[in-house]
Specification:
Rossmann fold, 21 helices, 6-stranded mixed β-sheet, single chain, alpha/beta
Length: 604
């Protein structure tokens, strides 16, 4: 018996402002499908999902929903203007007897149904929209970035709910782990085309790279054929031979076909420049305590951050992660305890609220209006890592076109705002990066690039994120904030933290005392080594760092061994020379620190 699809799109074409978004698009969603919808920022993922939901009408083509099938849609920015409270919105369309469904979803997603819409944050509105969709339990769920503004605990709850359901769903998300755990098929939007693979997101990147490799090979073969045919045409004319007009027409057609190939969008040309080297010890916090009213944010917390550390802060929304980072960077004082900052610190901050961006001003004005980026007497230039650059040229490196440069920031998507904020941060030198939820709304390619940049960054990173995969790829230390003032330091990223937490000794006592035992007590926990927890982790990580620096130095020395390099490529020679000096200095510092910590461990 043939399976009746839940939803079918046939020959869909859609144009916005003269530019085609889709052309002759077709897709089918079957019962029980678990589909990842992926593509670059601006490729049309949200637009396609709105077509699937019936909220955007295509120029041509048909949308067919099978009889009796209900389609539920969770958009990124739901309109709650007709409701007084989040609970009223979440209950809309449901029978009063189904209130328990909303309450259950609300508990898992942590939203207050009594919260007034007028005072609710964007994240609270989205959690209410998600609770509403989960309570409706339609045959097909369309979820556009459902994990944004959710903490890891709520993401885990949603992940478990979607694993248990037998209903079909299509997901747009930047969260690799979430997509990998949940999906069994992938829809990939690329330059107006939608491709489908009957494998989940885990297989997407290999599929994408193979597709692009085959495309590049096809383009290369076509270019060679065009060159060969063009050479024949020129030689035929010069020799006054009779021209084969059919072959000439074929050459014209070939050129038109080559011109019609749509180039892939480049990856953002992001770069991080480390400023002057900071002191070896970047932050030393001892015995920190912080309360707001009756709420205890932190108690008896100590942490040492060394130059080059990547420290991640995780925990539920509202637990105080941002507050702790602001204390560690000296922005706000603790109620008790001390914070000592290292020497020569040059911080750069990525704010999750995007407060550094003025939505009413254009992209151009947001950059040229920054006092640290302004070039005196040049209205069209900004300072980028110590060099004047034309503002539009710099914006193009972050994938903004000429027309967007003069558009207001409020017209940008979430991913575009994140890229613009990264552009501001990366224009200046720094040696301490503070990144508060930098991964929200970024596509996979930009996340990959950001991860690589952080891996090569010579400075120190303090990071807040709910993206488990990103944490695993970037963090060397994780600070888990568990509520009621508890904060525990673990080595490694998210998965390391989970493994260490499960391996912690348990007793017959209640869970609360166990959590207290997990608090870091360097002197009591490691009496035989004489090292703090952070120092022990640093000592373990140093050999790999020394090996990496040694390999990089050898590579740079090999490059500079070319006697013609200075004459042929003086800029490259200069950069290689500077990089070699920086790596040699870093290697010497790493070896000194390893020796210092080793001696301290032996003395203990």
């Amino acid at each position: 018996m043939a399976v009746i699809p839940l939803l079918q799109l046939n020959d869909i074409s859609l144009t916005f402002g003269g530019d085609p978004v889709f052309h002759d698009l077709g897709l089918i969603v079957q019962p029980g499908d678990r589909v990842a919808l992926v593509g670059r920022n601006g490729s049309g993922k949200s637009t396609l999902m709105k077509v699937m939901a019936g909220l955007v009408e295509a120029d041509t083509g048909d949308r067919v929903v099978s009889p009796g099938v209900s389609v539920g849609y969770m958009e990124q920015d739901p309109d709650l203007s007709a409701f007084d409270t989040l609970g009223e919105y979440a209950m809309h369309g449901l029978d009063p007897s189904e209130l328990y469904k909303v309450e259950r979803a609300g508990e898992g997603l942590k939203f207050d149904p009594d919260r007034l819409v007028a005072t609710a944050s964007g994240g609270e509105r989205r959690r209410a929209a998600l609770a509403r969709l989960m309570a409706q339990d339609p045959e097909l769920m369309l979820l556009d970035e459902p994990t944004n503004h959710l903490d890891i605990e709520a993401i885990g709850w949603l992940e478990d709910e979607l694993k248990r359901t037998r209903k079909g769903f299509v997901l747009i998300s930047h969260d690799r782990r979430f997509l990998t755990e949940l999906t069994r098929a992938t829809l990939w939007i690329d330059r107006g085309q939608v491709r489908r693979q009957e494998k989940g997101f885990a297989a997407f990147e290999a599929w994408r790279d193979k597709t692009w490799e085959e495309e590049d090979l096809q383009r290369h073969k076509m270019d060679r054929k065009i060159k060969a045919e063009a050479r024949w045409a020129v030689e035929g004319i010069s020799a006054r031979r009779k021209r084969n007009m059919g072959r000439v027409r074929a050459l014209k057609d070939l050129r038109q076909e080559r011109a019609s190939l749509i180039q892939r969008q480049d990856t953002a040309a992001m770069a991080l420049a480390s400023g002057p080297k900071s002191g070896r010890k970047v932050i030393e916090a001892k015995g920190l305590k912080k309360t707001f009213g009756d709420t205890v944010i932190l108690r008896d917390f100590s942490l040492t951050v060394q130059r080059g550390d990547r420290v991640a802060f995780v925990g539920p929304n509202g637990v105080g992660k941002t507050t702790l980072i602001r204390m560690l960077t000296g922005e706000i004082p603790p109620d008790e305890g001390t914070v000592k900052l290292g020497t020569n610190l040059v911080p750069a901050v990525f704010d999750q609220t995007r407060a550094q961006l003025n939505g009413d001003l254009s992209l151009w004005e947001n950059l040229t209006g920054d006092p640290e980026m302004r070039v005196s007497g040049k209205a069209d230039q900004i300072m980028v890592r110590g060099m004047p650059r034309h503002v539009v040229g710099y914006l193009k490196e972050f994938l903004f076109d000429d027309s967007q440069a003069r558009a207001p920031v409020r017209s940008l998507s979430g991913g575009e705002k994140a890229r613009l904020l990264l552009a501001r941060i990366m224009a200046r030198e720094s040696n301490l990066l503070v990144l508060d939820e930098p991964t929200n709304d970024l596509d996979v390619e930009t996340l990959d690039l950001l991860q690589d940049l952080l891996g090569d960054y010579d400075g120190t990173v303090l990071l807040i994120s709910h993206d488990r995969d990103f944490l695993d790829r970037v963090a060397t230390t994780t600070v888990a904030m568990e509520g009621k003032g508890r904060a525990t330091v673990y080595a490694g990223g998210w998965s390391d933290y989970q493994s260490q937490r499960q391996a912690e000794p348990t007793t017959a006592a209640s869970p609360k005392p166990q959590a207290k035992q997990a608090q870091p007590k360097p002197e009591a926990a490691k009496p035989k080594t004489g090292l703090s927890f952070t120092e022990k982790h640093r000592l373990e990580a140093l050999p790999a760092e020394i090996d990496r620096l040694t390999a990089e130095i050898a590579k740079l020395e090999g490059l500079m061994a070319d006697p013609e390099l200075f004459t042929r490529e003086p800029v490259k020679f200069k950069k290689a020379s500077e990089a070699l000096v920086a790596r040699q200095t870093a290697l010497a510092d790493a070896e000194d620190l390893w020796l210092e910590l080793s001696e301290k461990a032996e003395a203990g």
